[in-house]
TrEMBL record:
Pfam families to which the protein is assigned, alphabetical: GATase_6, SIS
Domain of life according to the entry: Bacteria
Localization per record: Cytoplasm
Reactions catalysed: D-fructose 6-phosphate + L-glutamine = D-glucosamine 6-phosphate + L-glutamate
The enzyme's E.C. designation: 2.6.1.16
Record: active site: 2, 615
Originating organism: Thermocrispum agreste
Lineage: Bacteria, Bacillati, Actinomycetota, Actinomycetes, Pseudonocardiales
Annotated keywords: Aminotransferase, Cytoplasm, Glutamine amidotransferase, Repeat, Transferase
One record GO biological process: fructose 6-phosphate metabolic process
Protein name from the UniProt record: Glutamine--fructose-6-phosphate aminotransferase [isomerizing]
Gene3D superfamilies: Glucose-6-phosphate isomerase like protein, domain 1, Glutamine Phosphoribosylpyrophosphate, subunit 1, domain 1
Length: 620
């Protein structure tokens, strides 16, 4: 959601900002805009609804000469207040046109602020909450206690704003400075040679520098050609947290693939291997920034997993593993529901918050609620230093690398692997598994990347199936045990990419209602358990398939290699390598990702940027 880039340096700010916005496109947006300081007291602004291409055309039409300057900022907006039209696109300006603001997040007290501005005779030109900040900063700069002090004016306004926000502000009277502020929403500083950046995500400046500084909560940064200065909202000196980005430009590019998503599907073996690396040492499972002691893990009497979307599906897999290995009750809850139903939490509750972005507002609020209730929170996250891990007691990073495609793929597999690590760490601390059993489970996990690589060898067959079913009206997905979350994930991928009606069901539920949906030629994807490990379930699923086949459905069956019993019931059979029961989602999910991507492509959709969706959802 909303991408932000700010720049002061020696290059064309317009080029840097547009390049940065391109790299942030994955976050999802519906309009874009730029502002450039020309160094002579001029502040040129252009904004346009729709894709970045529309903005670029507009810049060509008005002439890019007006945007010559080496300080500026840009924004991609995901509409919250007001529709995605030109006048609501960022940057927003004050009445004089000297102050420009771009913003990510929501200013919750904006109605009060807007009323105050209107009462003072200021006419607002947009429906947004952001515009109020532009006017307030201009007023503060003109007549506040720190009049004429640009950063101090921004700080004064930040102290009045409620909600989560990142603001980046330019002032025509200060052509060599960009000021940015952060509360809860993401903001990082890029540190180059005689050039500095601010952005929602390091991807925006990775082609210029890998040196970055993560800003803390309620901090303001001023960047100029000479450096950067961090203060808190009161103006006291503060420090960000410097870090070096451990991936480079190539990781943020398509590398010969038509889409990022296809590249990311291919990267899954490495994502898994990197997530597992270093977590078994000296015969023990070790987690990352583990600020929970073994005693803390022994004290746990209940686990809640909170997450959204795909991350939630990974949490459903975690339930099977943790309950089985640790004999601990596990509840998996949609983060958006969690805090509104007054869950029973105390200091012996472990809340596992899963989020690839670490920015998801629903999950963040669930974490805050859990901590208020004294529960301990362990975050599983793919983004270094994001807000959710910052606010958690402990963090386990997935090392899937940047995921640009809006649909989660490699982060899903990495989350499942991280969940298993948490399960094994709990089992180890609580003694529900002997050390040699933990070592054996970890060794099985370590074999998973090779198994996923093998599945990737079958994508041509899956794509062919996708082509055959691309024009279907709906698709059902069925699974049992850990195959059930896989079915849910397969349906979610198809919905978000191909805009098709897709539903995942626990296969046992079929006869309790969904079987009424079965009709002639309806494609039904079935995730089969192994005929060995869960023989009873296998037999039950075979019966379920025969019931749906008898009613005319077309079955697409994902089954273990050599599963002859299911063959007669499969109109299409996709074979996956044999895996230990709990680990099967790591291989069974992959064909479903490929299937959804292919169906979406056949229907002519951009699989990296599905409509209406954002990569990180920073509003509740
Ligand atoms: O960044 P998060 O993992 O917290 O995101 C959660 C969901 O928004 C995300 O998984 C979403 O469902 C994906 N688009 C699914 O592909």
């Amino acid at each position: 959601m909303c991408g932000i880039v700010g720049y002061v340096g020696h290059r064309s700010a317009l080029d840097v900002v547009i390049g940065g916005l391109r790299r942030l496109e994955y976050r999802g947006y519906d309009s874009a805009g730029v502002a450039v300081l020309d160094g002579d007291g001029g502040l040129a602004v252009e904004r346009k609804a729709g894709r970045l291409g529309n903005l670029e055309q507009q810049l060509d039409a008005v002439g890019r000469d007006a945007f010559a300057g080496s300080a500026g900022m840009g924004h991609t907006r995901w509409a919250t207040h007001g529709p995605p039209v030109d006048r609501n696109s960022h940057p927003h300006r004050d009445t004089s046109g000297k102050v420009a603001v771009v913003h990510n997040g929501i200013i919750e007290n904006f109605a009060t602020l807007r009323a105050e501005l209107e009462a003072a005779g200021i006419e607002l030109a947009s429906d947004t909450d952001t515009e109020t900040a532009a006017h307030l900063i201009a007023l503060e700069y003109a007549e506040g206690p720190t009049a004429g002090d640009f950063p101090a004016s921004v700080r004064a306004v930040c102290r009045r704003l409620e909600g989560a926000f990142t603001l980046v502000v330019a002032h025509a009277d200060h052509p060599d400075v960009i000021v940015a502020a952060r509360r809860s929403s993401p903001l990082v500083v890029g540190v180059g040679e005689g050039e500095y950046f601010v952005a929602s995500d390091v991807a925006a400046f990775i082609e210029h520098t890998r040196e970055a500084v993560e800003l803390g909560q309620d901090q303001v940064v001023e960047i100029s050609r000479d450096g950067y200065r961090v203060t808190d909202f009161a103006g006291e000196p503060a420090e960000g947290k410097p870090f070096t980005v451990n991936w480079d430009l190539s990781a943020a590019e398509k590398g010969g693939h038509d889409y990022f998503m296809l590249k990311e599907i291919d990267e899954q073996p490495e994502a898994l291997a990197n997530t597992l690396r270093g977590h078994f040492s000296g015969g023990r499972i070790v987690l990352d920034e583990q600020r929970l002691t073994d005693q803390d893990l022994r004290d746990v009497d209940k686990v809640f997993v909170v997450a959204c979307g795909t991350a939630y599906h990974s949490g459903l897999v975690a339930k099977y593993a943790i309950e089985h290995w640790c004999r601990l009750p596990v509840e998996v809850e949609l983060a958006s529901e969690f805090r509104y139903r007054d869950p029973v939490l105390d200091r012996d509750t472990l809340v596992v918050a899963i989020s690839q972005s670490g920015e998801t507002a629903d999950t963040l609020e669930a974490v805050r609620h859990a901590r208020e209730q004294k529960a301990r929170v362990l975050a599983i996250c793919n983004t270094n230093g994001a807000q959710i891990p910052r606010e958690s007691d402990a963090v386990l990073y997935t090392h899937a690398g940047p995921e640009i495609g809006v649909a989660a793929t490699k982060t899903f597999l990495a989350q499942i692997a991280a969940n298993y690590l948490v399960g094994l760490a709990l089992a180890q601390a609580r003694g529900t598994k002997y050390p040699d059993e933990v070592a054996r489970e970890f060794a099985e996990l370590e074999a998973a990347p090779a198994a996923v690589r093998k599945v990737l060898g079958t994508v041509d067959q899956v794509r062919e199936i996708g082509r055959r079913f691309a024009q279907s009206k709906a698709v059902l997905f069925l699974g049992r045990h850990v195959g059930y979350p896989v079915a849910l994930e397969g349906a979610l991928k198809l919905k978000e990419l191909a805009y098709m009606h897709a539903e995942g069901f626990a296969a046992g539920e079929l006869k309790h209602g969904p079987i009424a949906l079965i009709e002639q030629d309806l494609p039904v994807v079935v995730v089969m358990p192994s005929p060995k490990g869960r023989g009873v379930l296998h037999a039950k699923l075979v019966s379920n398939i025969s019931e749906i086949q008898a009613r005319g459905a077309r079955t697409i069956v994902i089954a273990e290699e050599g599963d002859e019993a299911v063959r007669p019931f499969a109109d299409e059979l996709i074979e996956i390598p044999a895996m230990p029961t709990l680990l099967q989602p790591l291989v069974a999910t992959v064909p479903l990702q490929v299937l959804a991507a292919e169906i979406a492509r056949q229907r002519g959709f951009d699989i990296d940027k599905p409509r209406n969706l954002a990569k990180s959802v920073t509003v509740e």
